[in-house]
Design brief:
This protein is α/β, with parallel strands linked by helices. The chain has two domains: 3-223, Aldehyde Dehydrogenase, Chain A, domain 1 (3-Layer(aba) Sandwich), CATH 3.40.605; 227-288, no CATH class. The chain contains eleven helices and nine strands. A five-stranded parallel beta sheet has the order 5-4-3-6-7, sandwiched between helices. Helix 2 (27-43) packs across helix 6 (144-164). The longest helix has 21 residues, at 60-80. It is globular.
Length: 291
């Protein structure tokens, strides 16, 4: 299996992006497409948030919060589209100057995990689009429905943009490939994909890193266990316990967390993390906000 054949099955031509130049040329114009995506997301925030909760198992507030993160990154990317500046450098030749200009990479592959099924795609896609890149998305096989919903919303944004600038968006600008590890492996191995951004386990990240490096591609990895809880000797265990439980279960146990300790308080903290402790925390909801 290779990424080009997968795209061909969808009636798309991945090689159209090999020249690293999309039809949308000016960065602020690319930003307008992302602005329209944010507009569509605002309109569908409630529905998409509910879908995230149903498929990923998050509480309602977490599902809505994740969609809000998509909206926020769209706003950020729109501003960034007007700030893609480079350096002007003095030259030793009279009457000359050197200018630094950033160019699109081409195609960016995005591999996302189940715990944040839509926000991680948006973090990558919004920035990739304003920089002039195409995006190929491989979502977790555990959350395909939310991925299909996001893809439908992206098509709505593209349609609105097309009314302003007909023909400006090439086919396959934002592709979606649903499948198992073999699809992720195909994206990682494809020379047509200039950068692979992968979120998931450390084991998965190692495979992606080696595969992409073998072809001298670029990778951006966000892997498990990067949200450490360090319990210091002077810690208030009641406060630490609330922070640990909230971090672990607030996103349906999907946060990338682990607990470390600097003292014998670890045993006391570990023993405190029991079903009874959750009941104690629920009885004092005003203390859930940890500073």
């Amino acid at each position: 299996m290779d990424i080009a054949s997968l795209y061909a099955d969808l009636g798309l031509d991945l090689s159209a992006h090999e020249g690293r130049e999309l039809h949308i040329r000016a960065p602020p114009v690319r930003g307008e497409l992302v602005r329209l995506l944010g507009e569509v997301l605002r309109e569908k925030r409630e529905a998409l948030g509910l879908l995230v909760s149903l498929e990923a198992g998050k509480i309602r507030a977490e599902g809505l919060g994740e969609v809000q993160e998509m909206i926020d990154i769209c706003d950020f990317a729109v501003g960034l589209s007007r700030q893609l500046h480079g350096l002007t450098i003095a030259s030793e030749r009279p009457g000359h100057r050197m200018m630094e200009t950033w160019h699109p990479l081409g195609v960016c592959g995005v591999i996302t995990a189940f715990n944040f099924p839509v926000a991680v795609w948006a973090w990558n896609a919004a920035l990739a689009l304003v920089c002039g890149n195409a995006v190929v998305w491989k979502p977790s096989e555990k959350t395909p429905v939310t991925a299909l919903a996001v893809q439908a919303l992206m098509r709505q944004a593209i349609a609105r943009f097309g009314q302003q600038r007909p023909g400006a968006v090439p086919a396959g600008l934002c592709g979606l490939l649903i499948g198992g590890a073999n699809v992720g492996a195909a994206i990682s191995a494809s020379p047509d994909v200039a950068l692979v951004s992968a979120t998931g386990s450390v084991a998965m990240g190692r495979k992606v890193a080696v595969t992409v490096a073998r072809r001298l591609g670029r990778s951006l990895l966000e892997l498990g266990g990067n949200n450490a809880m360090i319990v210091a000797p002077t810690a208030d265990l009641n406060l630490a316990l609330r922070a640990i439980v909230f971090s672990a279960v607030g996103t349906a146990t999907a946060a990338c967390s682990f607990i470390a300790a600097c003292s014998t308080k670890y045993a006391r903290t570990s023993n405190a993390c029991t079903p009874g402790s959750a009941s104690a925390i629920r009885s004092r909801p005003k203390h859930w906000s940890v500073r």
